[in-house]
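Exam revision sheet. Question 4 asks you to relate a sequence to its structure. Input first:
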Amino acid sequence: MTADLVAFLRARLDEDEQTARAAASGPWIRHEHVADVHVDDAAEGRIYRTAVADCRRVRDGYGVPNALHIVRHQPARVLAEVEAKRQIVDAYAAILNEREVLRVQMRAALTEGHGDDFMQMHRQESELIEKSGHLVPVIRVLALPHVEHPDYREEWRP
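Answer key, structure tokens:
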């Protein structure tokens, strides 16, 4: 289950990254009281900025709030969030991998009659189990925004 959850999260992070990289790079801006979002790319000879979103026609006064939301979640921020989440997922995956390697070594130590080595590795494994135990709830929470994804599994819910 945990390796599948790691793979699921990595795939979602890859999708978020691809989407952010495909969008117009920022920074994105919104002028006061205007419901449009633009790339801040005006230059001499080019007074108009590149439009990102026109929220003027959004009903019930949501134009400006929508524009603010779009500006807040511009590609640079999404990429920073993807990187931060990847670090968490990678830290958890590294612990899982280290534990798997340790288990192979423990089996070899038992087979070869190296009881002292086995006990040392058993203590190391206990430490890894404790470390991963702290990250499991975090990893599950990172998956929550994707509960509607067809590959999400209910067993991952915190």
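Marking note for examiners. Residues 75-111 form the longest helix (37 residues).
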